[in-house]
Amino acid sequence: MNKHFNKFSASQKGFTVIELIVVITIIAILSAVILLSVTQYINKGKDSNISGNLAVLVPAGEVYYNIENAAYGDGYTGFCDPDKNSAIKNAISQMPQNPTGDCLGGLTPGLCCNVAPDGDSWAACAQEFTYNTQAYCVDSRGVKKEILNSSCTSAIVSCD
Predict the structure, then answer these.
(1) What is the pLDDT of residue 138?
(2) What are the sequence ranges of the domains in the chain?
(3) What would the mean pLDDT of 122-132 be, rounded to a whole number?
């Protein structure tokens, strides 16, 4: 019996084509699942970066308001200008899309920031990665929330 078993096992020298195809298919499916999960986590991390950068603008806006009012009485005028405000410049530099912050002309927004004509309020928003129909918004009243991406324009002055 051992002699017969040894002859049989000696004649099998490798894997069949079907076995190889099954193993390769399983590896491909597992790789795809892992890749999708990693991509989602990367996008959620980018969304957190966007909300964090925008949240910093709220206290920066208060400091800017106090300094501008003490010196010129201008309120938030110039707050969204990256040449006058280092907090805005830093936030724009870390936005992954449209780093100029220009929201006009149908461009995909990076950071949209606008001051009301009277200089009494401002709002800033940026498109999210995970849900590209949503944008994260902050304003001079301290409101921080998600809004529709279509509302994230150069005319935004509040997150309502």
Answers:
(1) 94
(2) 15-151
(3) 86
